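S.,

Sequence below, as promised.
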Amino acid sequence: MSAHRQRTARHRTNSGLLRPQWRSNTDRLTREQAPLVVRSLLTAGVDTTVHGLAACLYAFAAHPGDWNRLRESPALARTAFDEAVRWQSPVQTFFRTATTDVTIAGTTIPADTKILMFLAAANRDPDRWHGADRFDLTRPPPGHVGFGMGIHRCVGQHVAGLEAETLLTALAGRVERIEPVGEPHRHSNNTLRSWTSLPVQVRKDR
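The prediction came back faster than expected:
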């Protein structure tokens, strides 16, 4: 950061125009850590948010009845995004490391073992979800692991949800139908579920 920008930032902070809040729920972020957290929010969520929004368009193009339901009740926009994330799981898998020996379903996982979690499989677990392979706008949204779980839950999930809610609400007020106009093509990736091409057209509300 240039000396001029540093002086400007200090002036804004001291004058009350900008009061940075670096405290988390459990500890205080340092000045060095704070920009790294912001950068993570701006970069780590780009592809996954885009793929989540694409999943919404894909869902509504394939389920016009649900699009009509959203148009009638725009407040369902956040629910629609959550259900699309559960249904398509933009992040398919994720690695974690066991910090201690742990036994799950009779199998012991030693400490320091790498664990590959299949988030997409959990999001379509028939023991957890009725009609798991179906996009359902009436499904209660809580419970999916598309954003992770526990202390590893995605820190930017609320930003992604706000972006999706804003976009879907705006579309619901302007677009009568979202229609497929060609064969969608998946993007080959071991971790992310997305499309290289998702041809749809929107019909403007009269």
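The radius of gyration is 21 Å.

Coffee later?
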